[in-house]
Design goal:
heterodimer; A: 116 residues; B: mainly beta
């Protein structure tokens, strides 16, 4: 299957700082990328959807100024958690969709964020 | 919007037994149904998917069935092995112009005992 790489896999940051997570599609062009947040023992919660070259569409309740998403190329999307607080600590997962009208979506390995 | 229900939430089986996980969906327009396996601390891995133009798909020990009329689909794992232990998520989406998002079930924790 297609490969989606996510980096870093684990990051610890101080409260009040910002942290960036990268998501790359390694062997295909991703017209759409998705960012999820997952709490322990729960399902994936969609945060936002981004199409290359356009602004991300955020789900209800997700602060767009806090979770900045950039999808500058067909193989890279970034999620920046700004002014992080301990409650932002979570498992963040990206996924990428190849092409249009095709629904196969591949996930990255996830990034554990701990805000101290 | 779409709503996906998944059952059971936990499933314990003995090695070699079969495991079945069931999902229902609400939007009759949904036409793509993937299943993901998530191991602890890792991202979900696509294991099998089915589109609405077929009723069954099989890949070695894994099979998925789809009943469009009843709006439910199921994952079947035969000859289970301890390494099958993980959380399994079903999802539904609909294709068309533009992009489409996946709606996930709440997950099933499968435990295969040796």
């Amino acid at each position: 299957g297609a490969v989606v790489s996510q980096h870093p896999s684990r990051v610890i940051c101080k409260s009040g700082t910002s942290v960036k997570i990268e998501c790359r599609s390694l062997d295909f062009q991703a017209t759409t990328m998705f960012w999820y947040r997952q709490f322990p023992k729960q399902s994936l919660m969609l945060m936002a959807t981004s199409n290359e070259g356009s602004k991300a569409t955020y789900e209800q309740g997700v602060e767009k100024d806090k979770f900045l998403i950039n999808h500058a190329s067909l193989t890279l999307s970034t999620l920046t958690v700004t002014s992080a607080h301990p409650e932002d600590s979570s498992f963040y997962i990206c996924s990428a969709r190849a092409g249009t009208g095709v629904n196969t979506i591949y996930f990255g390995e996830g990034s554990w964020l701990t805000v101290v | 919007g779409e709503n996906v229900e998944q059952h059971p939430s936990t499933l314990s089986v003995q090695e070699g037994d079969s495991a079945v996980i069931k999902c229902t969906y609400s939007d009759s327009a949904s036409n793509y149904f993937p299943w993901y396996k998530q191991e602890l601390g890792k991202g979900p891995q696509l294991i099998i998917d089915i589109r609405s133009n077929v009723g069954e798909k099989k890949d070695q020990r894994i099979a998925v069935t789809l009943n469009k009329t009843a709006k439910h689909f199921s994952l079947h794992i035969t000859e289970t092995q301890p390494e099958d232990s993980a959380v399994y998520f079903c999802a539904a989406s609909k294709s068309g112009s533009g992009y489409s998002t996946l709606t996930f079930g709440k997950g099933t924790m499968l435990l295969v005992s040796p």
